[in-house]
Amino acid sequence: MRNCVLLAGRAGGTATMFGTDDPRTRGRHVRQLPGSGGTGDVVLAGVVHDHPASAHRVRTVVEATDPDVLALELPPLAVPLFERYADDGGVSASGEEMSVGVRAVDAADVVGIDGPSLGFLARLARTLRRSDPSLSTVRTVLRAVLSVSAHAVACRAAALLGAPTAAGLAVDAPVEHDVDSEDAPERQADDEQRQIRQARAVLGAFGKADPVRVRDETRERHMADRLAALRERGDVVAVVGVDHLDGLVAGLA
Questions:
Q1: What is the distance in angstroms between the CA of the first residue and the CA of the last residue of the chain?
Q2: Which of 10, 43, 103, 131 sits most deeply, having the most CB atoms within 10 A of its CB?
């Protein structure tokens, strides 16, 4: 990672990009965890999926840090589809921030760190045994995992086929936002922050159902383990949803 590109305080602190006052790259949405004992730094770029402010943040962080590994909150099976989007120079489905990151990275490994994968399924099984959930919770979690697995397989099929219609099998339609990349940076940042506040207000009011809590905790532990292993290769930039930032910082600490 290039020296003197990011400033950070304690591990997991906010990272501030040198030479920019752009509100899309300020704040707590970029975290830097310095390496030690020969391991690389990990920079977490938090995103709101398909938001133009998030896409800008990812591009800026990747270009500034020049990582050895780009880690995406995607199943490994889905990564080739977003590499295809990046190669085509455009984004034809959801996940703009992912393909933007792939397009910006230079000669780095691009990996998916989310489930489903064999490691994720093994951890999920251990979590379910340890937490002794209700039968209803187990059924709901397993249905969700099967759905995500089918989605990941469809992503790989779309990447292999390379046909325009194949992408419809793989990825949902892009999330519509009230701003686009042509809007002023301040307006993009304000809209992104408004959406984050609204989502957290809903979560604070209603909490997480047990199946969602089990799945999210398992995902974050799995992604933290993957990042800990990947930093052995060198410096890592990870593109993840903003609500995973605190959990990943804790897991990597």
A1: 20
A2: 43
Kindly give the residue spans of alpha helices, DSSP state H, lying in the chain.
52-65, 79-88, 96-104, 118-131, 135-161, 167-170, 185-206, 210-230, 245-252
Which of 220, 212, 213, 217 has its CA nearest to residue 240? 220
Sign of CA dihedral 94, 219, 154, 101: positive
Cβ count near 37 (within 10 Å): 4
Cβ-Cβ contacts under 8 Å for 192 (sequence gap 6 or more): 24, 48, 51, 53, 54
Nearest to 77 by CA among 8, 170, 196: 170
Query: What's the pLDDT score for residue 106?
Result: 81
Question: Residue 29 is inside which H or E element, if any?
Answer: none
Whole-angstrom distance, CA of residue 247 vs CA of residue 105: 25
**17 φ, ψ (degrees, to nearest 5):** -75, 130
The partner residues of 252 in beta bridges, in order of sequence, read none
What is the C-alpha separation between 243 and 156, in angstroms, rounded? 26
**CA-based torsion, 87, 89, 95, 98: positive or negative:** positive
What are 155-191's pLDDT values in tens digits?
Answer: 888 888 865 444 444 455 778 899 999 999 999 999 9
